[in-house]
Amino acid sequence: MSDKGTVDKLKGKAEEIAGTVTGDDKKKAEGLMNQAIGKVKETASDVKEAIEDGVEKIKEKIDRD
């Protein structure tokens, strides 16, 4: 997850705008879905980083004791 969902969010926003401008509700819905997917990826990446940091802190504590 190197982009943390940024690509999906940007693609989704572009699709949403295109759907709004053209009146294409399907394209607009796809854009909203892609934005949601991007947000989920971003959140998952943040959770993964927090867990990795927590594990690292536990390892450091164990090594000191």
UniProtKB/TrEMBL annotation:
Residues 4-53 form the CsbD-like domain. It holds the Pfam family CsbD. Gene3D superfamilies: YjbJ (1.10.1470.10). It comes from the Bacteria. InterPro entries: CsbD, YjbJ_sf. Belongs to the UPF0337 (CsbD) family. This is CsbD-like. The lineage of its organism: Bacteria, Bacillati, Bacillota, Bacilli, Lactobacillales.
